[in-house]
Amino acid sequence: NIHSDHRKIQFYVFDIVNKEPQMRRSIIIEKLRGMSPWLVVAPFWVCESLDEVIKTYDDLISMGYEGIIVRHNNAPYVKKRSTFMMKFKPKKEDIYEIVGFVEEESIHGVPKCSLGSFVCNSGDGNTFNVGTGFTADQRHYYWNHREEVVGKSVRVKYQYLIPKSKKPRHSVFVEVIEDGNST
């Protein structure tokens, strides 16, 4: 049975797997543009210098894009992370109040006696969790001192604020600030 909205599905093409270098693969993909309303070829720009990359990045971020992926034009297709391809997304940083904490759990739901995340106040009554960016030692330390950090400030890096909730998207722990001093 096919869902009644099946014609709304679109497939986005970013790359093609073959032995050709990046620029040739991009030309092959470009030939697919307009072949089907369900096939969308991701846009790409050719930049000749770092200044052009930075300008393109700034232009696309101002247009609402999440970020860019910069690829070397002679790079082969690699099925893993590679120095031929780099992702750039904006990062912002702010300070929030810690209002609670969540214990880390194993994949089976067993408590691990270490910090899973800080619960923070977004400044407008909403809360959000920060659970990445901690070392194992920090997780144990903050779990053992969890009551002491409630009410303190935490520096958080993130990509952007979610418009309606004002919560940071993809938040990452940087540091706890105690009495104006970083820890």
UniProtKB/TrEMBL annotation:
SUPFAM superfamilies: DNA ligase/mRNA capping enzyme, catalytic domain (SSF56091), Nucleic acid-binding proteins (SSF50249). The keyword Ubl conjugation does not apply. GO terms for biological process: DNA recombination; DNA repair; DNA replication. The keyword Ligase applies. Keywords: DNA damage, DNA repair, DNA replication, Ligase. GO terms for molecular function: ATP binding; DNA ligase (ATP) activity. Residues 111-176 form the DNA ligase OB-like domain. Residues 6-89 form the ATP-dependent DNA ligase family profile domain. InterPro entries: DNA_ligase_ATP-dep_cent, DNA_ligase_OB, NA-bd_OB-fold, NAD_dep_DNA_ligaseB. The lineage of its organism: unclassified sequences, metagenomes, organismal metagenomes. Its cofactor is a divalent metal cation. Transmembrane segments: none annotated. This is Putative ligase.
